């Protein structure tokens, strides 16, 4: 029997995969596999795990040896992570049989592998040869599917043209203007049909009698020509009015759509933005709404006009000659079939174009704000290459779509030309047979010219309609997304907040990772709490939960006894002051940045906050003082200056809860002293939760909370924890030894050949 494994030969990139295949027994198949990227010494290396029904096989990248464990009851595979390193343990009872480590880049694949290990005894399964596997995570694919639901972060469903009907919610405020525009369109369309109707009497009553020897009646000619002129002028006036009105309405609909999309975007939680790229979101709100505006003001208007025109022309042609009208309509089924066929291809094509264009704008959004880093590391060519690859991908997608579209348009034109020839031939036959006059044929040919012209126009609208549908889908993808931090239906009003926090047995997961587990903490009003622990211990996550950037998955967080989920996000956050490790300043003046949380603040209040933040002196040294412009993200100011402005911003709103997230870790010692003075003013009388890189800066905290792997391991004042000689003492001593070593030893460059990840 042939061996089966979760990837084919082309996608099996691990060098030991062939060796694994040769080690399998006759009837043994691989159910799941995992490529681990660290060895036992935490050096980068390619290890391999493979699971079958009979055993677990492992290739160690360090020893270059294979190991195997027969599967039996009581065998467990445990998954955990710490400090950016994941861990898989094979245990039996209290005995560890094996241990594998990996970076969290493959944590998702590791979870899928563990799930496959746990399901190995779950009754009958499909035969291995009938099961497909994802080439990325090696997980079994759903039946009759080529896409892995785990790896596919966003399901790109083709846009439906019906999504354009959802724009009605934005058009509803402009119903009156739209109705007026429709009536004007109806009048303009009717006026354009007067001309061909007058061609018949001009031919039958003026030109043909003149050829037969009769005199031309000037008044009759003037009458008909006047009718043609009047119809043209009326059509022009009505067309101008309806185009102007509908253009105004479409611009307002697009503006309302941009505003609604941006407002909804601001209401979404941080988790949504963690999975999106800035350039893609900018493209959706900018270019997609512009595309919809153009569609509404021009192409949708043309489409409705075409439908009205075709309907009216059909009525006129049938009234003139039913047989000629029937000949005219012969190409219609073929054109309709082609439109349907091409529309299905365009639907997926334009949505894909939007996605690849989002990749192009994302490269720009990444590179331009980070231009200082790009130049510092001389990576201009790399970024140019990245942009060229994204741009070339965009070009390829457009070329494939244009290949289809370029064939469609000439084919429609060919069919209409054939239809026109059929009408000419049949019309000549009817004239020769005496069934119709030359005037009737002339009038009919004028109508059919417009009829086929409108058909050609409608076929071209298929393209822009699908573009607009793709854009509308990407807009509504944002509008349909619900925030993971919702406001309650019946919110409780927060009045007179004292700042007490009760954290009760909370848990939280980042996707597949459990970051906080069973954590409880009671913080008294006005108390200063210092959060300490290794990187990845959950300190910043706890702060994010307290700020309600995310909601806990278990337990509850209460402020003054009220669950945070019972109050509105805005009502709660107006009591919070936040000072981040990397302060963000907006493009604008110093005063505007300080007053960001309180836009109506007076200049006296702004100056008072700046004085308390020890920022007043350096602000006055700027060319225009408080009215000096700061560049994008505060470029032009030092890190310490930006930090003191952010402290002044927090002081101005006078919060009851203060969050300090590594507020002094990115500055030098002298600047830290200035910032610390500002922080001393900031924390007075407020409940403060501080994360600090330097443990010595937290000595003034009432209590220190030591965290490890998402749990609290120690709580107490600095001196008390030092006497215990527990987790905090070890952290403090390790940091003190590191500082002494840095002061005693000269700086050495790292070995470029050593690739080690420290847990």
UniProtKB/TrEMBL annotation:
Residues 179-467 form the ABC transmembrane type-1 domain. Gene3D superfamilies: ABC transporter type 1, transmembrane domain, P-loop containing nucleotide triphosphate hydrolases. Keywords: ATP-binding, Cell membrane, Membrane, Nucleotide-binding, Transmembrane, Transmembrane helix. It is a multi-pass membrane protein. It holds the Pfam family ABC_membrane. One of its GO terms (molecular function) is ATP binding. Residues 501-734 form the ABC transporter domain. It is found in: Cell membrane. The chain crosses the membrane at residues 178-199, 219-238, 292-317, 323-342, 405-430, 436-453. InterPro entries: AAA+_ATPase, ABC1_TM_dom, ABC1_TM_sf, ABC_transporter-like_ATP-bd, ABC_transporter-like_CS, P-loop_NTPase, Type_1_exporter. PANTHER family: ATP-BINDING CASSETTE SUB-FAMILY B MEMBER 10, MITOCHONDRIAL, ATP-DEPENDENT PERMEASE MDL1, MITOCHONDRIAL. This is ABC transporter ATP-binding protein.
